[in-house]
Every structure is written in structure tokens, then in C-alpha cells.
Design goal:
Blueprint (H helix, E strand, L loop, with lengths): L1 H22 L1 H11 L7 H23 L1 H22 L10 H29 L5 H26 L8 H7 L2 H25 L27 H15 L3 H6 L1 H7 L5 H26 L1 H25 L3 H34 L6 H27 L3 H19 L8 H9 L10
Helix pairs in contact: 1-5, 1-6, 1-8, 2-3, 2-7, 2-8, 3-5, 3-15, 4-5, 4-8, 5-6, 5-15, 6-12, 6-14, 9-14, 9-15, 9-16, 11-12, 12-13, 12-14, 13-14, 13-16
């Protein structure tokens, strides 16, 4: 029963996060630009469009950083209820009549999403059966990618037959009333699931030390010192998760297809979402078979290689058809590498390398939201300045994290947490790398 509850909690949390925080942005970006008259190609409008997209990350960063403190004081049940209430408040984003109202509404909803990302994976780490910990831990990312795909498909149909028209032409073709209605429809599935997650809170235990679900989680285990190597691995994991550019691809994927000369832009976004989901499902079947280290290292090398080649394709390849094919192949490799590695394993590894009850996991989760904010806020401007060379920036981070994990990450699969913390406190991790 505990495994089923863990699976349900992590799956709902991941789906809501993927749908609301990532997947709706291609459609919403167009709708918001029309609603708030941000259709210009000038730098000011580019940054304003980017800003409204990234505001959810501002709220999520705060929610994630405060997650550990909230769980400690009101337990997992209380934290999930608070997270659901704030996420449900995101229905305001369907009615916001001005740019600044939309900005504030997305910050509030983002707080709930950030708290979800701190609470649901941590709950699984505390209550999942040891043999299923890795698989159940990856469910968050699996359902995150499913949420992204679902919102891509829903947005594709809601935007209508002229979904791939130029921005100004699209806005001219639709009234503000129609745009507001489509905006609301797109948000409603995530709101419904947030209500369901809040109801789920009433069937889970709130404490990892007591059967009484009303008792807040104990901080006893948090007194175990957190190894310095754990902090370093967590930070580098957050860098691998976000500063390798995944949200640049997911948030602004239509731009990539436009550059490649592909006219069905929203259909291209669905392709990204579909491949993202398929590769995550494959990773789910392998995480408890091969372990963390054996999956993460090849994946990080794949990220580095694909990003490096993406950045230089324009300079090296003159034939446009060859360039488009090469870019698509590299995009496929990049997404597969991400989902088989940091996409699935960040949440699992962070829960394994920190003491149970430690606020360190929430800190790492908050940090990855900071990195998400940096990428989503800067990518449009950097892309205008650097073009495809912007991917070289992300490839550098992929290379650095590969070298770090090659040297310092032990295999964490199947190792008792106390033993693993002892390993991480030791001067060397040699002998544990190939378990």
C-alpha cells in the first residue's frame, strides 16, 4: 500500500509540475502576447514576453526553498495541502486582465509548484520500500514529461487552425474574449489535478517517525551531519539539471523548429514532448537495474556532445537540408541524454545523499529553480545575440558536471543511507564507483 500511495503522490506532483510549469508555455506565450499587446519584435517586448513566462519560476524558487521548513513544522500532509491551495490559486492566471496581474498570479501558483517539487519526492524517499525507491523516485519525472506532452497536445487544439501563424496575424484573427477563454481552458486540467493532490494529502502519513498523520515530521534525522560531498553533488546535480539548457528547449522549442524551416511549429513542439516522454519511460525501467552512476555519466557526456555540435552546426554545415537533419538528430540525442540522466536522477540522488529530514534537499530544489529562472529569463536575449552559439554555454556546464560526477559520485543504488553518508564523509569514494 505504501508503494501505491508513493506512486500516486509522486505521479500527481510530477504531472501538475510538467503541465503548469513547462508544457503550457508554447501556447500560453502566444495567447499572453496577444492579450497584453506584446507583439513587437523589439527588445522590450521580447524581454516582457520572456518575463511573464519566467515568473512562475520566481514563485517556485521561494516555494522550493521553504519546503523543508514547511514540512518540518506541519508535516507532509500540511505541506501538500498548502502546495495545492497555492497551485489552485493559479486559476487567476486564466482571468488576469493585465500583464502585472498575470505576473503576480503566476508567482502565487509558482510557489505551490515549488512546494510540490520539494514535498512529493521527499515523501517518496521517506516512505517508499527500499527495493522500489529508485523507480518510484523517477515517477516524478516520468509524469512531468507526460504533463508536458498533454499540455502540448491540448494547446495544439485550443489554438485553432492558424496556430502556426505569425504572432501579429494570430492576434489580429482572435478577439480578446476568445483568447481569455482559451487561456482558461488550458489551465483547468492542472487546477483539477491540484485539487486531487490536496485530497490525496488526507490519506498519507505526515510524519516519518509516527503513525499519527497529524504529528509534524520529526527533525531527529536532520541532526545527522550532511557531508560536504553531498552538498557538492547536490549543487552539481542542479547545474546538470538546469544549466544544460533543457528549459530553453522545452519553453522555446517552436523557435528551434522555425530556424530549421519547419512550418508546423506546434506539431514540432508535440514531437519534442513525445520524445521527451518516451525516453523518460525507458529511463524508468533502467534506474534500478543499472544504478545511478552508470546511467548518469554516459548521459552527461551525451548532453555535452550534442550541445557542442548544435552550437557549431551553423558554422560548419552550409547545406540547409543537411543542417536541418543534423539539428534534429542532435535534438533527439540531447533529449534522450537529459531524461536518462539528470532529468530522472537528480531527484533520486538528492534524496539518497542527504540525511532524512535534512533541509538540504529543499535547498537543492530551490537552487535548481534559481537555475531554471536564469535559463528561461536569459535564453531569448542570448539567442538573439549569439544565435546557435548559445548552446555552447550549456555544453560547458554539461562538460563540467560530467568531469565532477566521474570523479566524485559513488553508486547510491541499494546502499543503506547511513552507510552511504559514511562513504560520502570519507576522504575517498574509490571502490564504490563501480558497484
Amino acid at each position: 500500500m505504501s508503494a501505491l500511495i508513493c506512486a500516486a503522490v509522486n505521479s500527481l506532483g510530477g504531472f501538475i509540475f510538467g503541465y503548469f510549469a513547462v508544457g503550457i508555455h508554447p501556447a500560453e506565450g502566444t495567447i499572453w502576447a496577444c492579450m497584453y499587446n506584446l507583439t513587437g519584435a523589439d527588445t522590450g517586448h521580447v524581454w516582457l514576453r520572456s518575463g511573464i513566462t519566467t515568473m512562475v519560476n520566481v514563485g517556485a524558487m521561494v516555494g522550493a526553498l521553504g519546503g523543508g521548513h514547511i514540512i518540518k513544522n506541519i508535516g507532509y500532509r500540511g505541506a501538500l495541502i498548502v502546495a495545492s491551495i497555492f497551485t489552485i490559486s493559479g486559476i487567476w492566471t486564466g482571468f488576469a486582465s493585465s500583464y502585472w496581474q498575470q505576473t503576480f498570479a503566476r508567482i502565487l501558483a509558482g510557489f505551490g509548484l515549488g512546494l510540490i517539487t520539494s514535498t512529493t519526492p521527499s515523501y517518496v524517499d521517506n516512505f517508499a520500500p527500499a527495493a522500489w525507491r529508485g523507480t518510484l523516485g523517477t515517477l516524478f519525472q516520468v509524469f512531468c514529461t507526460l504533463g508536458i506532452l498533454a499540455s502540448n497536445i491540448f494547446g495544439y487544439f485550443l489554438m485553432g487552425s492558424d496556430r502556426d501563424a505569425e504572432l501579429k496575424k494570430y492576434c489580429k484573427a482572435h478577439s480578446k474574449q476568445w483568447l481569455t477563454r482559451q487561456n482558461l481552458y488550458l489551465i483547468l486540467p492542472a487546477i483539477f489535478l491540484a485539487v486531487l493532490l490536496g485530497l490525496m494529502a488526507f490519506v498519507i502519513k505526515s510524519s516519518d517517525t509516527d503513525d499519527d498523520p497529524l504529528i509534524p515530521a520529526s527533525s531527529t534525522n536532520a541532526r545527522i551531519p550532511t557531508p560536504k560531498k553531498s552538498w557538492a553533488i547536490g549543487i552539481m546535480g542542479a547545474i546538470a539539471l538546469q544549466l544544460t539548457g533543457i528549459n530553453a528547449v522545452m519553453f522555446f522549442g517552436t523557435n528551434f523548429f522555425k530556424d530549421a524551416g519547419f512550418k508546423q511549429l506546434m506539431l514540432g513542439q508535440i514531437f519534442i514532448g513525445t520524445w521527451n516522454f518516451i525516453t523518460t519511460m525507458i529511463a524508468l525501467t533502467q534506474v534500478d537495474r543499472f544504478g545511478r552512476r552508470k546511467l548518469l555519466l554516459p548521459s552527461l557526456f551525451g548532453l555535452f556532445s550534442s550541445l557542442f555540435l548544435l552550437s557549431i552546426c551553423d558554422a560548419l554545415i552550409k547545406d540547409n537540408t543537411t543542417k536541418v537533419i543534423m539539428n534534429f538528430v542532435l535534438l533527439v540525442i540531447y533529449i534522450a541524454s537529459f531524461e536518462a540522466g539528470p532529468g530522472c536522477l537528480f531527484w533520486v540522488i538528492c534524496n539518497e545523499i542527504f540525511p532524512t529530514g535534512s533541509p538540504a534537499f529543499s535547498t537543492m530544489n530551490g537552487l535548481q529553480w534559481v537555475f531554471t529562472l536564469i535559463v528561461t529569463a536569459t535564453f531569448p536575449g542570448l539567442r538573439d545575440i549569439m544565435h546557435t552559439w548559445v548552446f555552447m554555454v550549456y555544453s560547458v556546464f554539461a562538460g563540467i558536471t560530467f568531469v565532477f560526477h566521474l570523479k566524485y559520485l559513488p553508486e547510491t543504488k541499494g546502499i543503506d543511507k547511513k552507510k552511504l553518508l559514511s562513504i560520502l564523509n570519507s576522504p575517498s569514494i574509490q571502490g564504490y564507483n563501480t558497484r
